[in-house]
Amino acid sequence: MRGARAVRSLRYRVTLIERDELPEGAAHRKGVPQSRHPHGLLDRGRRELSAMFPGLDDSIRQRGGLDMDAGLELATLNPEGWATRRRTGHQMLFASRLLIESVIRDRVKNLPRVKFVEGTEVHGAVVHAR
Predict the structure, then answer these.
(1) Domain for residue 10, yes or no?
(2) For the chain, how many structural domains are there in total?
(3) Which of 46, 79, 84, 117 has its CA 20 to 30 A from that of 17?
(4) Handedness of CA 110, 115, 120, 122 (dihedral sign)
(5) In a domain? residue 81
(6) Residue 28: inside a domain, yes or no?
(7) CA-CA distance, 50 to 9, in Å (whole number)?
(8) Is the pTM of this model over 0.85?
(9) Does residue 103 form part of some domain?
(10) What are the helix (H) ranges across 1-130?
């Protein structure tokens, strides 16, 4: 979906082919095996996605996402033992993959020249020269 957002200014039509039928909102689906795992957007990735989708952070927070300084709020076990917790100043945004994906998908669906084809599996590609 990120690519769809990136190429919209190039005046191409973008077709996203999805094996699953896409749910409304944040719901589990067969084609996302890690959907039940917690996910975190690292600081840089969060900022890049927010530049592409202004207000993304707020949308994720409004739907349950949490800001977290991982150095302070997560326990890390290294070979030497438990790491000392310390403030890093890098904010991560934690949410389920389902939530992150649904917020981005809602925004991509509203982009001009972007079409979703659901319930379709791709087995190969053919390139035609113009």
Answers:
(1) yes
(2) 1
(3) 46
(4) negative
(5) yes
(6) no
(7) 17
(8) no
(9) yes
(10) 2-7, 43-52, 56-62, 70-73, 97-109
